[in-house]
Amino acid sequence: MGLRLHYRAWGFGIPSLPILMLHGHPGDGGCMAVFAEAVAGLHPCVAPDLRGYGHSQVAAPFSMAEHLEDLQGLLEDLGWSECLVLGWSLGGILALELALRLPQRVKGLVLVATAAGPRSDHPSTDLWDQINTGIASLINWVWPGWQWNIETFGRRSLYRYLIQQHTPTVYRYLARSALPAYLHTSHHAHQALRTALRQGYNREGELHRLGIPVLLMAAEQDRHMTLSSSAATARALPNCTWIVYPNVAHLFPWEIPLQVGQDLRRWLQAQDWGIPGAEMSDTSVGV
């Protein structure tokens, strides 16, 4: 059923509820390492490359609904009868959809910079935005986190709408994870997302069906997924813990990874799902 997705796995052998981690657009499973490393020793984690992203490429156009077929097939392949789902941006939308589709299997959600009725207030861009972004990305790929590049090109690039804290730490994440993921995001993936957004996607009216525990993390300065749209999702969920981080934007898990990791672990342990003190196994990659 569906495409057999390439995935990365952490912590196999830890005897606790596993977490399926879903990346955003553009993205791939490697972008989710910041979350998997935060829960090291607590939960086994799997982060697939979604259809049309990373190493899960396809030759034909597809719809957003096909992501759900792929993910259900992955759960079957992994033998996971129950799991938690963590989704960032587009991944959060898919996490909600998966929970609505498989209510007996999905036992909890972590939603990051996402909304059931996604709305953006991203300003229009021009040629200089594109040029500065290209230069900043290329230099940052060669010299990750170089302060001169950050101040000269990074702050003038489109990164200024994705992050608020222009630190070497976040630029290293951009070089290590964001740029490779962007380069391996297919035309079909771009088209599938554009089509869904043009159709006015909104599932807020269905969220009352989800009584499972939910952690929703949002950024105060998010231009790609507005704070108001995330807030509407939090209000519609019956059992939601809601955290808003100031002075960060859409890529806030890379801006403040220690704070996000601490809050994620605290919430997971409060639900009595984790097993503190367990050892993390070696990272593996599956196909």
Task: Explain how this protein is built.
The chain is of the alpha/beta class. The protein folds into two domains: 7-122 and 185-286, Rossmann fold (3-Layer(aba) Sandwich); 127-182, no CATH class. The protein is 38% helix and 14% strand. It has ten helices and eight strands. The chain has helices spanning 33-38, 65-78, 90-101, 127-142, 147-152, 168-183, 187-198, 227-236, 252-255, 257-270; strands at residues 7-10, 19-22, 45-48, 83-88, 106-112, 214-219, 240-245, 284-286. The chain has an eight-stranded mixed beta sheet, sandwiched between helices. Helix 4 (127-142) crosses helix 6. It starts with 6 loop residues before the first strand and ends with a strand. Mean pLDDT is 92; it is low at 274-287.
What are the SSEs and their pairings?
Layout: E1 7-10, E2 19-22, H1 33-38, E3 45-48, H2 65-78, E4 83-88, H3 90-101, E5 106-112, H4 127-142, H5 147-152, H6 168-183, H7 187-198, E6 214-219, H8 227-236, E7 240-245, H9 252-255, H10 257-270, E8 284-286
Parallel strand pairs: 2-3, 2-4, 4-5, 5-6, 6-7
Antiparallel strand pairs: 1-3, 1-8
Helix pairs in contact: 4-6
Sum this structure up briefly:
This protein is α/β, with parallel strands linked by helices.
CA gyration radius, whole angstroms:
18 Å
The CATH homologous superfamily of the largest domain is named Alpha/Beta hydrolase fold, catalytic domain
Number of helices: 10
Tell me the domain tally: 2
What is the assembly state of the chains in this entry?
Answer: single chain
Task: Report the β-strand fraction as a percent range.
Answer: 5-15%
Q: What overall form do the CA principal axes indicate?
A: globular
Structural class: alpha/beta
Low-confidence stretches: 274-287
Strand order in the sheet with the most strands: 7-6-5-4-2-3-1-8
Chain-averaged pLDDT: 92
Using the coordinates above, name the CATH class of the largest domain.
Alpha Beta
How much helicity do the residues have?
Answer: 25-40%
* Major sheet characteristics: 8 strands, mixed
Which fold does the CATH topology of the largest domain refer to? Rossmann fold
**Pattern of helices and strands:** EEHEHEHEHHHHEHEHHE
Number of strands: 8
Ends distance: 15 Å
CATH architecture of the largest domain: 3-Layer(aba) Sandwich
